[in-house]
């Protein structure tokens, strides 16, 4: 597949050539195409050659990527074929790159297989945060299930408690005499007591 730009400045007859191959894979039971190599031609000769990596899709699909570049900051899908040629002097970057070499219908791209990995850093961070929240929720449910409910009813009544006279002299400040009957009894000052039903 060749893109011919003609004369661009001092570059005479600039051509970008994509070498595509197709192969049949028994695992997927279909043909896949791959971008094998990219060549830059001007002045009627090949000036730079880049080997393409991980640029492939089913033959009935197209391939799409936000950046296809020889630069490391764009994941370097294009690698200079040799350290001895002029490829290392070139920096090639395609923005919003989409290609389809086979089974083209009505001059339109087919459904695109995107280069974005399913496990991108943002997706992995979201999965980790979801796992942490799930663990917190599981711990909270575990604590709620094992929480013992207090099925106790407290009934407090204010009724005097009577005790026979005690001979100890040090208990005098905790009781006061009752003067209601002939027999001398003592009443505790705190008269509230509770019955607990469980």
TrEMBL record:
Residue ranges of the TM segments: 118-141
Cellular compartments annotated: Membrane
Domain V-type proton ATPase subunit S1/VOA1 transmembrane: 117-154
Membrane-topology descriptor: Single-pass membrane protein
Keywords: Membrane, Transmembrane, Transmembrane helix
GO BP of this protein: regulation of cellular pH
GO MF terms held by the record: ATPase activator activity
UniProt-listed InterPro entries: Ac45_acc_su (IPR008388), VAS1/VOA1_TM (IPR046756), VAS1_LD (IPR046755)
Protein name as annotated: VAS1L protein
UniProt organism field: Jacana jacana (Wattled jacana)
Gene name as annotated: Atp6ap1l
């Amino acid at each position: 597949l060749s893109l011919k730009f003609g004369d661009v400045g001092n570059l005479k007859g600039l051509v970008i050539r994509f070498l595509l191959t197709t192969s049949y894979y028994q695992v997927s039971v279909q043909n896949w195409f791959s971008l094998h190599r990219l060549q830059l031609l001007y002045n009627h000769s090949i000036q730079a050659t880049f080997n393409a990596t991980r640029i492939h899709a089913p033959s009935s699909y197209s391939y799409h990527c936000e950046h296809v570049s020889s630069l490391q900051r764009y994941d370097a899908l294009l690698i200079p074929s040799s350290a001895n040629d002029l490829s290392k002097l070139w920096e090639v970057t395609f923005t919003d790159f989409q290609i389809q070499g086979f089974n083209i219908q009505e001059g339109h791209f087919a459904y695109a297989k995107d280069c974005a990995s399913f496990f991108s850093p943002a997706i992995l961070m979201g999965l980790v945060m979801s796992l942490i929240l799930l663990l917190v929720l599981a711990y909270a449910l575990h604590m709620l299930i094992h929480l013992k409910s207090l099925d106790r009813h407290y009934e407090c009544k204010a009724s005097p408690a009577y005790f026979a006279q005690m001979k100890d002299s040090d208990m005098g400040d905790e009781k006061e005499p009752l003067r209601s009957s002939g027999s001398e009894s003592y009443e505790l000052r705190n008269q509230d007591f509770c019955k607990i039903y469980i």
